[in-house]
Amino acid sequence: MEVGVNPFPLTFAVHFLGIASIAMVFVWTIHYLGGLAWNSSDKSLLFNVHPVFMQIGLIVIGGEAIISYKSLPLEKEVKKVIHLVLHAIALILGIVGTYAIFLYHDEKDIVNLYSFHSWIGIAAIVLYGVQWIYGFVIFMYPGGDPCLRSVSMPWHIVFGLMVYVMVVAAAVLGYLEKLTFLENKGLAKFGSQAYLVNFTSVVTVLFAVLVVFCAVTSPPAPAYEDYAPI
């Protein structure tokens, strides 16, 4: 059930928070963690690829894809293509970011999939892919019959939001996990880096809350008037 609120003004806050969260992740990985690199003698730089790609891809671009129907004053068919393409980009970046962390673990001889963060993260990216493929086949090409599309749409929306919540939960758990590792190695619990990581999580959650809110809102219908002007 949709909430009778015009979501368009809120989409500007979504854009701002998304950009802010990306900037914060870049500051963290470049200024505090030393930068990003796919091939380097310092393997920690390979780890840094993971949070950057996941934040940009599945969190921000994925969120923008969800609200594209509410934030873009374009024809429905154009918005459908944009929605599909943005989700594809988000999924590709998410896959690359996931591959980076597996590669980092292999390089450092660390076991994979040992934490709840990794479990929910893998589940989320697999379900994200299933959601994209189903949406493409049913709503784009070859396309289901009108009855199937009508029945599928509410479930497509609900399942998509559920997967997105899983993605955000995985991200926040990942920030907490990495920060805990750093603090166990001596990082100050109330230092600037710790505050930056925690506030990145806060901004990410606020971004996601507004994305979901925009997704379930629509402008209220005009009030019915039972009289005509004289």
Automatic annotation (TrEMBL):
Query: Where are the bilayer-spanning segments?
Result: 12-33, 45-69, 81-104, 116-141, 153-176, 196-218
EC category: translocase
Report the residue ranges that make up the Cytochrome b561 domain in this protein.
13-216
Q: Which GO terms describe its cellular component?
A: membrane
Give the GO molecular function terms. metal ion binding; transmembrane ascorbate ferrireductase activity
Pfam entry (one): Cytochrom_B561
Give the Enzyme Commission number.
7.2.1.3
| Keywords, in A-Z order | Electron transport, Heme, Iron, Membrane, Metal-binding, Transmembrane, Transmembrane helix, Transport
Reaction equation(s) it catalyzes = Fe(3+)(out) + L-ascorbate(in) = monodehydro-L-ascorbate radical(in) + Fe(2+)(out) + H(+)
Q: Is the keyword Zinc in the record? A: no
Obligatory cofactor(s): heme b
Report if keyword Transmembrane helix is assigned.
yes
Q: What is its main location?
A: membrane
Q: How does it sit in the membrane?
A: Multi-pass membrane protein
Intracellular or extracellular location(s): Membrane
Alphabetical list of PANTHER family matching this protein: CYTOCHROME B561-RELATED, TRANSMEMBRANE ASCORBATE FERRIREDUCTASE 1
Question: What is the name of the protein in this document?
Answer: ascorbate ferrireductase (transmembrane)
Which species expresses this protein natively?
A: Acacia crassicarpa (northern wattle)
Task: Output the lineage of the source organism.
Answer: Eukaryota, Viridiplantae, Streptophyta, Embryophyta, Tracheophyta
